[in-house]
Structure formats: structure tokens, C-alpha cells
């Protein structure tokens, strides 16, 4: 999984967000180390929607002709499954690396 | 930049993004960008720049992914198809570069060299001549001074009473001000220090339109004789010395032993025209009795007034001054554009350097064109096949143009980077000689210049191969290939012309550079009139407050010299008011028996200096006749004496062998006659490449009140620089409150006077060297290529019984004819255009036979070398293999 996909899924797993909010949250939680640049952000949102991992949330309050600025996204069941699988994979990798590190010290 | 403008710009950039994203998410993308932009703004300008670059890259990457990745298929608009083709062309160009690594890197290196040299020189020219001054409406600012042709002076300096008349009479000027650079003793709890400062009339800051950061500027009350002592300090000093303390206004500063109240802090830009961090009021007296021509003027014209109108207006306003104190109408004011007066010395240097780098770039372009042409020719076979299977001609030309554009982009980027770096080095090495307002930052104009230059070179060297590819018809291309791609006579002619042109340009650069270098070595070998080795100088200025009168000052200098002379290893020590290369103090004299000068007659200004006994020995100035000063000269008890220089003797007593014993006195007065006791050899006071004026030395005890600032010269038996610590200690022992400054060896002083000339001479020498190397490389490349092309012919000749020497001779003859013709054209250009250099040559003839002969020899040798290796290779061709392979 691409790292920025992971960050987007992580952010959406806490609730519905629009694009800018995702970018802000990723920057803050990474302490400024990761910036999702606009084309990367929206490109990834499109890709993830295409994969069916996230979906656009219809906003009842929004009139159809209103600005498209606030497109809200939410994570789908498939997305959550993919995210959990990736998290497990990463934590397995980390555990392996730590074990290797301990063995070297010993 | 405001957020709104940033958003608008990003919206333009968004056109780079894939349409799919742009149509659905434009607003969201803008928001996300602006958010990142706001965030970066907190970390400074560099961070903002990075945000822009990253965001652009982000859009480009997205569009690249979109076109090459999963979204390959589907319908496309013609525009999208076009940019897709461009991408493919770029890829195929990169592939072809990888195949021809040597040729590609050669092209890039040549372009880099050419463009880097241009960036350096244009950067300099831009900063000195094009970049506007950092003031509002800078074109209305002018420089004002006075001139006196009868005194042989282009700039006399402005006399304060004249200035007072102008202020009453002018109509075309908005404001005008006078400036006088001074150095001041600045004392505080941390100790004493010598700082540069400026005495200015109250309107200077109104002329420049610079407002204080804190406090206020001078008022009329302060800018008058015996006004209250006040000072302004610069932002720089405020930060460095006072920690940017807001409460600084109202506190006092000890300047020359007198407490001055600080009334304001001025921004950095106010340090103009020279970098001086302190200003005090000039406090001129319009009723002063004697005339003192010393100030420089800066003025702001009323809108729409031309320089000529302004000068007319000023001369008209000057009329009352003729009545008052200048009945002979010797001194008249003039007006100049501010820039001319500040960068006048650099203009001819800048022109010569610009011509040099343009030539260098032209050579690089010719080289690149030759390489591209041979590449295009050797690819005719490939092109023929592509044409045969249905590729459009336009398509092939586009392919070649894309390759050229990529190459010049690479060369351009590298050239700009290296050029910037070299420019910074250069500025660091001439630093102090450049006007202080120059900043040498990479600016928009320089960037545009570099981009334009790169684009121009791309077109310049791109058209020839492209046209060649277009013109060749299909059948001949295919036939050529079966014959081993021989070159058409047309192609060969173009290559020969390119090599000839390169040598012509290289000859121009080489001869020009060699002439300047010869001028430099001639100037630096000029006898300065003194012995620069084993001598150290430093300055001390006595504040009026603690050394109020002549006897006190004289006593100080005598005590100091006695103590210095008592140090072991000191051979001689003396003081002078005005050492070589640094200052001018002019006055007028009349010799006994000479009638007072008639109105309109030349009355040359005389350099006036006061020297102590021991000065001539310390400085190593020899006397042509008579004797130097001793301790008794100049005392009230003895008759007044003077030492003249050779130019003075020649000017005032033409044809007389020995003038010792003759007498002179200041013109206009009826003081006692002063007897000449010696004739000193001329010292190159105004620079090694400048003529000397008549000059006089008076013994310092004769005019003790003029001894407030002097330069001490010490001749040592050991390394002179080692004496500087001891000198400081001695001065501290005599008066601890006095700083000593400008401590330097006389050798360093001499080298400094030549630094600008040394720098540009070296630059031109480097450019000339590069030009020769480039021309040599170009000739070699073309010769090797032509020899390869003629392998069959050579093979046949060898098979028919030609000897190695015959083959070598044929190849060499052709090459050397081209090079000879090119060099001859170059010579003709130099001799007809030498006027451009005349200003910088200082006496070296532009047709100097040694320079021309050695340049021709060098170019001939380069040409021979470039052809010898290919010729040898040609002679070693194995005829059997060649003929069989055909």
C-alpha cells in the first residue's frame, strides 16, 4: 500500500473528513514531516474511491449547485479491512526488525 | 504575496494537472495548497519557495502518472495527444543521449561553460548598470559636483558657499544635499574604535526619500555652524552595537571626544553612496572666508526635468558665486546621472567583459552546432528508414529540436548554478572596490537573461542539424547509408566554416585578453616611486577635544615617533598627511619670478602634503637632488622650507636642471617665500596607471594645526606585519584613548590599488584560455569526423601507393588553411575594434607585435595539435580492411 494511502485511511478511520482536513491532520500527526500535496491528495482520493476503499458521503445539507469544496469522504468496510491488514503487516515487520536488533546486541 | 494572489497563481499552475482531477477538485486543491502555503510562510521565504516548487512537481508528477500509467487508453483531445507525443519524444531523446554519452556530455559541458561565464558577467553588469537604486523614483536622482578645467581637475568637490547660492537660485531641483565621508573616533565603555561616517546636510534623506526607523533626521537648527552635536546611526550599527534597543534615541555617543545625542536610526538603504553607519550634520558656513572645494552633491530633480536642463538651471543659479569669490570663473557646477558618477570606473571594464563572454558563448555554440551536425549526419540512415516507413518530416525535426532543447536546458541549469557560484566568489574577491549599494542577489532579470540565453542557444545550434535532416531526400539518405554515410559537400563546408569562425572568435578573445594581461603586468611593474617592501603603515586621528591646538598635536606625533624609533629592528619611521593611493589635498602655488596667472591661463592644482623627518627614509622615496627633512626643519626658529616632486619642478621651472634653492609660495597670498631644499622622485600617488600631478611636501612642524590625522610609516628590518602588535602597544602607551586603524603593509596597500585591474585581467585571461580550449576541441572533433568520413578515399590512396606523409600532409593542409583564415579574420577584427579596449590598456598598443605574434603562434599550435592526431590516425588506416568492408 502506498504510504499516503495509509495516511488517508488512518485519518478517515476516525470519522468523515473533507480533503483539506485530511491534509491538515496528516501534517499535524506527522509533526510536519509529511505533506500531502494537492494533486497527490486528490489523486489518491480518486484512486481509493475507485478501489472501493473509501466513498464520498452525500451531505444532506449541501445544495446540488453549491461549491464542491466540501466533498466529505468516509472509509468503507473494504477500506477498513485493507487498512487493518496493512497495519498488521507493518507491525509484523517492525517486530521482526526489533527481534533482529536484539539478537545482534546479544 | 497575498493569499489571494498565491491562490490565483496556483490556479494557473493547476492547468498542469490532469483534466480529470482539475475538473472535479480544483477548489479543494486550491484550498489544500493555500493551507500548505500559509503553514510555510511562518518559516520564512525559503520555505515558501519550496512549497511552490513541491506543488509544481506534485502537479507534474500527477499528470505524468496519468498519461503513462493505468489511464493509458481512451479518447484524447488533440492537445493531449500532442503533449503525450512530447513525453515520448523526451523519452526517446533521453535514450539517444544514453547511447551517445561522450557527445552528450561534451555538448552539456560546452554550454555550461558558455552560459556560466555569461551569468557571471551579466550578473555584474546588471547590478552595476541596470538594477535601479533602492530609492523611490531613482531616475530623478542626480550627482552634482564642480569642475575646474584651468586647474586640470574634472571634479573639484563642492564649495559650501556655492551650495548655499544654488539652494537660493535653482528652480528645477526639488531638493539637494551635500555629503562628505569622514572617519570618526567612536569611544564607549568597550574601548576606542575608528568608524566611517558621513557629514551630511539636513536634506540628504529627503533627497533619497529614506525615512528613519526610529526618531527623526536632522533639522535646520542642527545643520548650522556651532549647532548642537547630534548623530544618526544606521540600522546595522543599532543592531550590532546597541542590540536594537528601542530606547536608543536620546542617548549619547562619544564621537571624536564630544558627546553626540542620537536623534534617530536610519534603515540600511540610507548608507549611500558609501557604507557609513554614522551621520553627523555637515553644518557648513555660507560666509566662510576661504574657499574649500571638498563635498559631493546628491539632488532630486523635479519630475520631467532632464539632466541638461538641470545643469543649465544650476549654472544660472551659480552666477552670484562668480561675483563673490570666483571672478575668473574658474569653477563651474555640473550635473550627472547618479549612476555615471558611481560606476564610471567600471564601465569600460564591463563592456570589455561583456563582449568577451558573448564571444565565448558564440564559440561554445559553434562547437555544439558542429557536434549536432555530425550527429545529425551520422543519423541520416536512421532518419531515412524512419521516413521510408512513413514518419513525417516534421515529426523528425521535432525529435531533433526536443533533443536540443533538453541539452540546452541541462547546460543552462548547470551554467546558471556554476555562474552564481563564480559570481559570489568574484564579488568576495573585489568586494571593497564595488559600490556599497550593490547586493548581487539572484534577481528576476538575471533569471530571465539566463533562460533567454539558453533558449537562444538552443535555437542557434538546433536549426542547422534540423534543417539538414529536413532537406536530405529519402533516396540519397538510403544510398548514403550503403556508401558508409559520406558527407555531402554542403555539410563539409558548414563544418569547415564553423571551425574557421571558432578560431576567428578565439583569436579576438585571446589577443584582447593577452593585451589586457600585458597592460596589467606592465602596470604592476611600474616603479611606484617608493620601496614597498619591509614597510608598515597605520593611521591615527587626534580628536579636537583632547588635542585642541597645533603644539599639542605636534608634540603627540613627535613623542610617538621617538618611541617607535627606539624599538630595535626599526630602521626609520615618519608621518605623512596623505599617503599614496588614498587621498588628495589640492592647493595652488606660485613660484618666485612667475607672474600671477592671467585669467584663462592654466593653473594646475598641486598635491599638498605634510611630512615629518624620517618619512622619506621610511617610505623609501629617493631624492633626485637636495636633501630630505631633518628634525630642525619647519620650526619657528628656522626659515620655511619645502621639498618638491619632479613633476612640480618640470611644470613650474621647465628646463631647469636643479631647482634647489628656488622659492615658492601659496598663490593669492603674500606670505614669506618658501625655499626648496630637495627634489623628490615622483610617487605614483593616484594609482600606478595614472599620471602624477605636481606635488609638494612641507615639514610637519611648519603647519602643526593641520596634523590631526596622519599616517605613520615604519620601515622594519624584519617582517613588517610583525610590528603591528608593538605599534598598538606603543600608541596605547602614549594615549590609551586613541584607536589605530588601517594597519597594513605598504606591499598590501600597493596590491590593493591594483586589485580591480588584477581581477578583470585574470577574468579575461581565463575567458581567453577557455576560448582556445573550446576552439581546439571543436577543431579536433570536426577533423576526426571528417577523417572518419574519408576513410574509403584514404584507403584507396594508400592502396594506390600514397605514403603516410602524403596523407598526413593532405589532412593537415586542409585544417590549417581553415584555421589560418579564421585567425586572420580574428586579427582583422581585433585591430579594427581595439578602441574598445583603449581605456583599459594604459599605454600598451592594441597592435603590440609581441602579443599578436604569440597569440598567432598559440592558435597555430592549437590548430596543428587538433589536426595532427586525426591525421596520424588517417595514415594508419589499413587499406585492405577498408576496401573489403565497403
Helical amount of chain A: 55-70%
Poorly predicted ranges of chain A (pLDDT <50, ≥5 residues)? none
> SSE order of chain A, as H and E?
HEHHEEH
Query: What is the straight-line distance between the termini of chain A?
Result: 34 Å
Straight-line N-to-C gap of chain B? 68 Å
Helix content of chain B: 40-55%
Strand order of the largest sheet of chain A: 1-3-2
Unreliable residue runs of chain B: 70-74, 481-485
Sheet with the most strands, sense and barrel status of chain A: 3 strands, antiparallel
The overall pLDDT average of chain B reads: 83
Number of H/I helices of chain B? 27
Largest sheet of chain B: 8 strands, mixed
Mean pLDDT across all amino acids of chain A: 85
Strand segment count of chain B: 23
How much of the sequence lies in strands of chain B comes to 15-25%
Number of helices in the DSSP assignment of chain A: 4
Please count the beta strands of chain A (DSSP E, at least 2 residues each).
3
